[in-house]
Amino acid sequence: MALTILEGSTFCICDDLGDIGMGDNSGFFARDTRFLSSLILLVDGRRPLLLSSSKVDYFSAVFYLRNPIANGLPPDALLIRRDRFVGDAMQDRIVLENALREPIAFELELALGADFADIFLVKEHDFALGRPRDAPPLPPPAAARWREEGRELVFEDASEFGAVTRVVFAEPGEAVRASVRYRVELEPRGRRELGVDVYPSARERPMTAHLTGRRFGEELAHVRESLAAWQLRIPQLRASWDPLVHAFGQSVADLASLRMRSTDGVANLPAAGMPWFMTVFGRDTIITSLQTLLFGPELARGALTALAELQASEDDPAIDAEPGKIVHEVRDGKTAAAWFRRYYGTVDATPLYLILLSEVWRWTDDRVLVRDLREPALRALEWIDRHADRNGDGFIDYERRTERGLENQSWKDSFDSQRFADGSFARPPVAPCEAQGYVYDAKRRVAELARAVWRDRDLADRLDGEAEELRRRFDDAYWVDRRGGYYALALDGEGRRVDSLCSNIGHLLWSGIVPEERVDAVVDRLMGEELWSGWGVRTMSAADAGYNPLAYHNGTVWPHDNSLIAWGLARHGRWPEAQRVARRMVEAAGHFGWQLPEVFAGLPRSECPFPIVYPTSARPQAWASGAPVLLLRVLLGLEPNPALHTLESAAPPELPSWIGDVRLKGVPAFDASWDVAVSDRRVSVERHG
Predict the structure, then answer these.
(1) For the sheet containing 33-36, what is the strand order?
(2) Cα gap 359→264, rounded to integer Å
(3) Residue ranges per structural domain of the chain
(4) Residue 438: enclosing H or E segment and its boundaries?
(5) CA-to-CA distance for 305 and 29, rounded, in angstroms?
(6) What is the pLDDT of residues 436-490, one digit of tens each?
(7) Worst-scoring range by mean pLDDT, 131-135, 537-541, 608-612?
């Protein structure tokens, strides 16, 4: 069983004994590179036997083992405890204890290796995730050399990347190639501890001196303090509905684990997901920040600042960049050399950036931030107006300009996601429906910022006019007058409606682009049996030819997708439907140990009594972790009022009985703290700071 521990963009995947190298994708990773591909513990030449192992926190794990039957050691003579911590480095502490009333002696060996494979190549060699038979070979094991009389083992990457892995042992042992051996003798009930620290570094970015030689627990204490500070800053939840408490608590821990430093090393922002997306993703980072504004603006401000720094300034077809465009993905290390260091192939991150800027202002009235980010916002608007419409039909669309880029550049970015109802594929440029909604919402919101903060009424009036015109043209171009009426998934390069019925129509409710007279039809399609699985809204209708309940974007259920749909339903006062989505999604979390996966199967609940995880689903994944937080906000109807500097509830006068009693203490808004409660099925909001 694979076990993963992480801190920001540094992580370890190992087996339940704590060993690395016994699985296709195991390793110690940093900067999108595998710095350790093997770390195997042996007792008298054989692997120990498992007693039990588990994560303690997202950044630490403990493994309890016993000796194998070898070389005269009797059963259960030796108890082994491996404590592992991941921070800037990986630290192991191995505790050996004699369980007998007589002395024992044995040889302990640690066998190590490093191949410095980039993370995409590792993924391709995993049968569950890639295509091992077609993948290029993994790099050969790196040369190892010993320093300081057997106390430090160094692996050096022979490629131009020039990575270095330093393995520092607390006490010297017998150095044998890439292994270290200790002759251990323990008195009755005696014990001995060994420490191993693994430091990743690159030629252009060596490890700083203060990290090397750090004792086990020093950085662990620092990370625990960081987690404790995070937990104290966010609202505290108590509720009689236990699933909500468990799902919310898991989200808090997962989002803490995914926090990473921005390019300036100061701001926190969420990485996209574990294990292959531990980096900045424009769309994922923005949506996670939107979902979690209930926690306060820290993550959102970090995301806005970092993404402004990464905003494209030039037209570069090789990375699908145009001036003003918000980045899709940032990679580091060898992965950057294998693919792109920065890649801009996303149609929706740019309008979503403007939506996030507006939403932060609505929660904080932070005029300084809005003024500071005025130029990035205006550049984003210019990209929408000048570069995002490739065929001149008035709708933003995408078509890759580099053969190495993504074929589909909406949130449904798999190669087969843009399909007509008959199963045929849309040809580019493709104009996704939800992206038009994002642009509509972005222009409405920036018009509000222009009036209230920038004092530019001409800009505000122009944006309002453009938004209203887009709304009219969108309805004419995308509405499909069949199956009860719905909006097409997209327009293809010939202007044809890509007429499959998909969950994207729920994003249109969230954006506000749907005319009031269309809302009932859209809601009926979302909650009808073709899209509604019983656990959530499917990505594609079961009546469409492309539907497959296990296809990544063509029939599965995505928690983040459903959280935005619930937000859209609530925006239009469709509370029973919004509550239904929230309830089933929170209940689904219980079948995954309260950690919602990135995606799960769209099989109907009537036939499958529990949701089934998608085989390669990322966990933890940022916008899946953010879903329970946004769903709690939806259930409570919480909306900021920037005009009055108040936090208010738009929830209906009477909530369903299953929600029970709720107390959410310490919601930050407008430099104050707010307590939200549900009692006798009614929501109350009270300011106390």
Answers:
(1) 3-7, 10-14, 27-30, 33-36
(2) 23
(3) 3-218, 234-687
(4) helix 433-449
(5) 26
(6) 999 999 999 999 999 999 999 999 999 999 999 999 999 999 999 999 999 999 9
(7) 131-135
Distance of CA 436 to the CA centre of its chain: 24
- Return the percent helix, strand and coil in the chain, to nearest 5: 30, 25, 40
Name beta bridge partners: 625. Answer: none
Residue 50 has phi, psi (to 5 degrees) of: -80, 135
DSSP string, 34-86: EEESEEEEEETTBPPEEEEEEEEETTEEEEEEE--S-TTPPTT-EEEEEEEEE
DSSP 598-661: S-B----TTT-SS--B-TT--SSBHHHHTHHHHHHHHHHTEEEETTTTEEEE---SS--GGG--
pLDDT in tens, 195-240: 999 999 876 444 443 444 445 455 566 566 566 666 667 899 999 9
Q: If you count DSSP H runs as helices and E runs as strands, how many of each does the chain have, helices first?
A: 17, 31
Residues 390, 396, 401, 402, Cα dihedral to 10°: -170
Among 211, 332, 221, smallest CA distance to 271 is for: 332
d(CA 432, CA 348): 9
8 A C-beta contact, residue 161 and residue 202: yes
Contact in structure between 343 and 399 (CB atoms under 8 Å): no
Contact indicator for 675, 663 with CB cutoff of 8 Å: yes
Place of tokens 């004699």: 98
Let me know if the fold of 3-218 is the same as that of 234-687.
no
Provide the pairing of β-strand 268-270 with 49-57. unpaired
Q: What are phi and psi of 449, to 5 degrees?
A: -65, -40
Place of tokens 């738009």: 650
The alpha-carbon radius of gyration of the chain (Å, integer) is: 27
pLDDT for 208 equals 43
CATH architecture of 3-218: Distorted Sandwich (2.70)
Q: What is the pLDDT of residues 656-677, one digit of tens each?
A: 999 999 999 999 999 999 999 9
CATH number attached to the domain at 234-687: 1.50.10.10
Q: Pull the structure tokens for residue 547.
A: 């539907």
Scored b (16 or more CB within 10 A) or e, 237-264 reads bebebebbbbbbebbbbbbbbbbbebee
The residue type found at 487 is Y
Closest to 137 measured CA to CA, from 109, 163, 115, 113: 115
pLDDT score of 583 more than 90: yes
* Alpha carbon distance 361, 584 (integer Å): 31
Nearest in space to 334 (alpha carbons), one of 123, 199, 163: 163
The first and second tokens of residue 67, run together, are: 């000796």
